[in-house]
Amino acid sequence: MSARPYVTVIAALGLLGAAAGATQATTSHQHSATSTATSTHQARGVDDGSFEYPTAPANSFTNVATGGAIGPWTVTRGNVDHIGRGFWQAAERNQSVDLNGGAPGTVAQTFPTTPGTTYSITYALAGNPGGPAVKTGRVLIDGQTVQDFTFDITGKTRTNMGYVGRQVTFVARSASTTLSFASTTANSAHGPVIDDVVVRAACCSCSCDRGATGKH
Ligand SMILES: [Ca+2]
Questions:
Q1: Which of 45, 84, 160, 162 supports an S-S bond with 56, CB 3.0-4.6 Å?
Q2: Residues with CB under 5 A from ligand 1 (ion)
Q3: What is the pLDDT of residues 178-197, one digit of tens each?
Q4: What fold does the segment set 43-201 form as a domain?
C-alpha cells in the first residue's frame, strides 16, 4: 500500500526535472523540485538562497564590498559580484553570485536553527567562465569549514554554465547558525559562482523525500 504514493512522488519529480531542463539548468531545477516536495517537512532555512533580491542590473552586475548586503546575505570578506539577469545563466531563476568581485569574497547569512538538529545544505555551483580554469572555495558553518569545493570551467560558457549540485550537512549547535560561502580563488576577478542555496532540516521519519537517492 505504501509503495504507491511513493512511486507517484518520484514520477512527479521526474516530470518536473524534464520540464525544467527544457529551459534552464537541469541540475538546479531538480533541486527546486525536491525542495518543493519536502517544504512541509523543513524548518525555516536561509532566505533568498537564489540571490534574486535586490534586482541587479540586467546584463550586468553589482559589485558588493565587505559590509554590503545582497538581500539577507552580507559580504563579510573581500568583495563579490551580484550577477543580474542575462549576464550569464543562473541555476535558479535569474540571478547568481560570483564569489570573486575584484578579489575573493565571502557571503554569509545567519538563520534560526534548532540545537542538535542535523541540517542539509544544497547549492548549485559553477564558475565565472573567465580567468583561471579551476575555481576553489569553501562552505563554512559558524566560521568552521565544512566543505571545500572546486569547479572546472573548461568547456563552459555564459550560456552553458554547467551548474552542479553540491550538498553538505551540519549539526546546529545553537539557536542561530551562520552559513558562509567563501572563495579561495586568489588573485582573480573570476571566481566560483553559487546559486539556489537551500537549507533544510534533515528529514527523519517522513517517507516523502530522497527516497530515490538516500536514506533521509
Ligand atoms: Ca538565482
A1: 84
A2: 50, 90, 92-93, 95, 195
A3: 999 999 999 999 999 999 99
A4: Jelly Rolls (2.60.120)
